[in-house]
Predict the 3D structure of the following.
Amino acid sequence: MEPGAWKTPGVLRGFASGGERVVALVWLSEDGGHIFSCRYHPAQGFRWVQREDLDERGGYQAGEALDGVPLERTPLKPVLEELAHAVVAHQRAGAPLPAELQLLVALLTPGEAGALI
């Protein structure tokens, strides 16, 4: 995938053992392309979260593995719903939310620059 190939957010997700998911969300903003990726369980919270700038490689592609889990294209809405559940589960467990999740909050806040909604 070439940088700029995603006109709208591209979402790749894979299912790991034990109900965990691995997600790579690729989107473009005024300051370039970005990748938000994480491993989480909707009912238990996040194992890891990271944000990186999109490089010349263009991010992840369907069929490629992230954290050992093959990724497939998937619609954005169900992934956002699962991520919301994971945030609540993470907070219920008393764990601090990873700082990289602030980026996700900004992406989901209507009216924010670069927001997805």
Remarks:
- Residues 76-92 form the longest helix (17 residues).
- Confidence is low (pLDDT under 50) at residues 1-7.
